[in-house]
Specification:
This protein is mostly helical. It has one domain. It has a two-stranded antiparallel ribbon. A hairpin with a 2-residue loop joins strand 1 and strand 2.
Length: 271
Amino acid sequence: MLQTPAEPAKRDDRPWIILCVSVFLAILIVWLRFTPAGFWGKLRALGYAVCHQLEERSFCVHGVCSPLCARCTGMYLGAMLSLGYQAFQGRKAKFPPVWVIVVLVLLFGWFGLDGINSFLHLIPNFKFLYEPSNLFRLITGTGVGLGIGTLLYVLFNGTSWSNWVDESPFQRWYAFPGLLGLAAALVLLIQTNHPWIIYPVMVISGLGIFLVLSSVYTVVALMILRREAAQLYWREMILPILMGMTIALLQVLVTAWLRFALTGTWDSLNL
């Protein structure tokens, strides 16, 4: 069912937009000065805020390692893939059918099981369920990422738009299997470990951290502003999106600073 669009209330967000841009740029300057130099240094600094970055659990080519471990790489790539896939469905904001939710819950369960199994592998002489591998980490991470993207797309549309559509992006039976097929193809491509595949994966997954966090905080900003389901046009989303981006960057900066303060190094965690 298509919701009846409400006439947007006239408001002047320009002062708040200017303030938000100023704060964002200030945080960005601090982050750029604080983090390691170079493109790959900045990219790894993004991952540093959310991931242990163990080299043996990451994808590396020609001495360059991804900003995220295999599991986190799959998680953020899966979220990006899910969001991009659903973007063609317009402003649909209904949760998926029960069978899709069941599949996502099972993927989340496998994610947890594989994570526990990988942790047990760190304990000497401890019997683990099966031999951990980056392939399993990538698959389980991607599965959870698909779930994150599915939930985030629905929440974003339902919170943002006054004319959101009361239908799931996965209403048609073939829609979700299509997404799973694309995810499987992505995993197979990454497993080739070809530089032309891995380098873009590094960049997309690293930037995915900021995109996913910004999307989450945009939803939060809409609630703070009390503008849930009140927008009709993208121009009305400028302030909430800028607020989301600013909070996301602040989280990345503060988390990285805390980790650096505790460890004194930009290297991966020593587990």
